[in-house]
Amino acid sequence: MAVLPVRILPDPVLRRKAVKVTSFDASLQKLIDDMIDTMHEQGGVGIAANQVGVLRRVVIIQLPEDEEPRVLINPEITLREGERIVEEGCLSIPGYRGRLKRSVKVHAKALDRKGKAVRIKAENDLLAQALEHEIDHLNGILYIDHLASKEDLWKIEVGEEEATPEESRESTAEVVQR
Predict the structure, then answer these.
(1) Does 170 participate in catalysis according to the annotation?
(2) CATH hierarchy code of domain 12-173
(3) CA 98 to CA 144: how far, in whole Å?
(4) What are the two backbone dihedrals, phi and then psi, of residue 163, each rounded to the nearest 5 degrees?
(5) What is the pLDDT along the chain (178 residues), one digit of tens a residue?
(6) CA-closest candidate to residue 139, choices 10, 46, 14, 5
(7) How many C-beta neighbours within 10 Å does residue 174 have?
(8) DSSP code of 51?
(9) Most CB atoms within 10 A, among 24, 54, 60, 85?
């Protein structure tokens, strides 16, 4: 197992659509293990394969309360309902947070690392947000693409996770335009 380099915007792989996984072989299992190690090392709650430069439809999500990471192969959102405003960050856009709309209720289907079908239902929580965020990655979409305006993105300082836009305003046009 290894910690892989996380691709940072404007790396073009982040804007490409990942391809469907068809083989559950040793290389897939190694990728999954490496992605888990990378997510843990970076302190994230989720990671998509294209964030480590691999265009395969693989997502890992592990919420703080989860004992084990969720491995989602070829995930698809099957239901979205409602809207809510959330704050997000991303391992591929370090130093920034944004305010955007996400769904209240999210249902998804996927395969686990062994190829067994799994279904996930999440409502008004971090899991619902993470499902949308990570599946967006697989489609070449970043959270900054959902911002209503440039003012909804702000720079944070190292160790400053809960800063508000008013507390740390900086020109964000360069990040949004990427």
Answers:
(1) no
(2) 3.90.45.10
(3) 7
(4) -65, 150
(5) 799 999 999 999 999 999 999 999 999 999 999 999 999 999 999 999 999 999 999 999 999 999 999 999 999 999 999 999 999 999 999 999 999 999 999 999 999 999 999 999 999 999 999 999 999 999 999 999 999 999 999 999 866 554 444 444 444 555 656 5
(6) 14
(7) 10
(8) G
(9) 60
